[in-house]
């Protein structure tokens, strides 16, 4: 079968030429014997095509402008997102530092609280007792009554503080 196909040799000269078309197959094309009329129709179609291409170019320019604005917006948003991510990372780093500092401050606070409750408050309590005794005369009467009342109130607050109660 393949040998048979290889033996054929087709030449266009072996076939007769086809006759010309009786009418055009183009849409909207009006046949006329006048070539000037045919040229006018062809020019009108080319003008219409040119106008359509111009409108398409305007649409493409608008689309390109909108695309450019959108790209600028996206670049700006990406920059802002990167900046926000950096800020969040910085906040996380600062959070760790703050937690470390809080633990250290809590330790210092406990030390100072122990210092106050075990040393200073008892010392102030003893000092107010001593001053209250000094505010009395030989007959055990108050020398300065207002000062004595203030010291008694101070001693009551110190006693509440030593017991761990709120004294305000």
Number of domains: 1
- On the 0 to 100 scale, the average pLDDT is 84
**Low-confidence runs of at least 5 consecutive residues:** none
Helix content: over 70%
Q: How big is the Rg?
A: 53 Å
Structural class: mainly alpha
Q: Let me know the number of strands.
A: 0
The SSE order reads HHH
Net shape: rod-shaped
Report the span from N to C terminus: 117 Å
Strand-residue proportion: under 5%
Main sheet record? none
Put simply, the count of helices is 3
Overview of this structure, please?
The protein is mostly helical. It has one domain. Helix content is 74%, strand content 0%. The chain contains three helices and no strands. Helix 2 packs across helix 3 (145-163). The longest helix is centred in the middle third of the chain and has 100 residues, at 35-134. The model has no long low-confidence stretch (mean pLDDT 84).
Question: Which keywords apply here?
Answer:
about 170 residues; mainly alpha; 3 helices; about 75% helix
């Amino acid at each position: 079968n393949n040998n048979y196909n290889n033996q054929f040799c087709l030449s266009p000269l072996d076939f007769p030429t086809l006759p010309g078309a009786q009418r055009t197959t183009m849409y909207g094309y009006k046949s006329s014997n006048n070539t000037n009329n045919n040229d006018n129709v062809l020019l009108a179609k080319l003008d219409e095509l040119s106008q359509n291409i111009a409108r398409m170019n305007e649409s493409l320019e608008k689309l390109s402008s909108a695309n450019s604005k959108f790209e600028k917006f996206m670049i700006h948003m990406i920059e802002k997102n990167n900046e926000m991510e950096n800020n969040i990372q910085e906040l996380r780093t600062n959070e760790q530092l703050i937690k470390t500092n809080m633990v250290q401050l809590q330790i210092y606070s406990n030390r100072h609280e122990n210092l106050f409750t075990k040393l200073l408050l008892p010392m102030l309590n003893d000092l107010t007792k001593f001053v209250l005794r000094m505010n009395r005369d030989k007959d055990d009467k108050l020398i300065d009554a207002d000062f004595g009342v203030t010291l008694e109130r101070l001693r009551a607050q110190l006693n509440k503080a030593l017991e761990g109660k709120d004294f305000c």
